[in-house]
Amino acid sequence: MEMIQQRFRHRRADRITISDDADSLCSLPRLDYSDAFRAATNRVQAPEAWARAVLEGPPAPIPACLHFLWAAVVRLDLAPRADRSRVLGWKITARSESGIVLDADAPGMRVQLVALVEPTAVSWTTFMYFKNWFGRLSFKLLATTHRALAAYLLSRAAS
After folding, report:
1. pTM (2 d.p.)
2. Is position 50 within any domain?
């Protein structure tokens, strides 16, 4: 039991308010939903490396399942997972020394993910614009899972 607990023990990602830095990187036409998580870390990485660690770093079935669910169920316009110019299929739309913006579009919503790097922490922010009632309803059904998964993936990457 102790070994299992140690294996799944990660730095905790806490839900935080949206930072001005993350907000300034969002380019959605309207903001209908947002959340942000922050995890302390002693790892130093570029923002793109953090984004890859969060989305592509978990054990093999997780990135594949995420890509499939986002592309097939949510219908995000993701590129193939093997496309290294993107992060798990998400288009990179902005980069800076401290941040990166990933973007994906679907018939019912547009989503942006922002990774921001600080000297001793990393934050992960999700921004959503709902194009219609279907997008809003789809996310309402997935919201709790989204928040738990975002916190887990960031915690895991920061460990």
Report:
1. 0.91
2. yes
